[in-house]
Known about the structure:
Blueprint: E1 5-8, H1 14-23, E2 39-43, E3 46-56, E4 59-67, H2 76-90, E5 95-100, H3 104-109, E6 113-115, H4 122-125, H5 128-133, E7 139-144, E8 153-155, H6 161-174, H7 186-196, E9 202-206, E10 212-220, E11 230-237, H8 246-261, E12 265-272, H9 275-283, E13 287-298, E14 301-311
Parallel strand pairs: 4-5, 11-12
Antiparallel strand pairs: 1-2, 2-3, 3-4, 5-7, 6-7, 8-9, 9-10, 10-11, 12-14, 13-14
Helix pairs in contact: 6-7
Amino acid sequence: MADVRIDRASGHDWDGVARLLQQCQLPLAGAEEHLASFRVAREGATIVAVAGFEPRGDSVLLRSFAVSPEWRGTGLGAMLLGRLEADAREAGARTAYLLTTTADHYFARHGFERMPRDSAPDALRASVEFQGACPASATFMGKSLRTWRDLRVRIATTDDAEAIAAIYAPVVADTTISFEVVPPTVDEMRARIAATLQRLPWLVSLDAAGRVDGYVYAGRHRERAAYQWAVDVTAYVREDARRSGVGRRLYGALFEELRRLGYCQAFAGIALPNAASVALHEAMGFEKLGVYRNVGFKFDRWHDVGWWQKELQLPARPIAPLRFEGP
């Protein structure tokens, strides 16, 4: 599939943006005025997707969200929406709103909730889009722009290696939860973090004192190209922080990032029995696939591993996942 890139729009893009909006039967009124806040996706020199926003107080009104028909179902729209939401956060917006006549189910899958139109903030009502460009029958939707980065979760760094190694060491030494038999050194953990962050997320959770109380990361599910949209995921929580919501917070943050990057399926292998881990994964939407019988030998006996799967998203024609941008 041809490469596509997502850029900020410039004044030279207006003709291409207008053509795509007209092709998708979206209004032009007020769009050119806010072109500086737009993002465009290009295949070569051709604009194949566009979206923008109008700043309205501490909110934004998303508008002009259009994807060329041949690029629908590829995940490009989700990537474009993620970039636009990041731009809105950077601009200081706390909430994003939109009006849609045909795509309410799509936006609901991306965290937007249907709202009464008369509940719109006064600042939004001054928008040409709100006043008449979209018909009165359009669905009004809103979404908080608060993200996992606001929830005591951040990207791991190699400086976290000591704390992460300390959380993991007793799991290796004392349990069959991990099939490693020798706890990795701090230097080995530092190397693992650095290697993962070259492409995929590794996140840590912080307690009230700012100490690492858990971590989560993703790894490639298989090496062959057709598997590139699938990942294996792993989470560990410090012993004194278990059953306090840390695992849910970490997984929620990881899934948000994986969707933004374009990944579609997440898999988790759980050494059995492990009722707490099974409960966490099923609470996060994983479904059990099956069991590898007697696949691991540790502490002088054989152990089973159960496999669980979570669908993150399922575009009909996915584009290659983005590379994660670490610290």
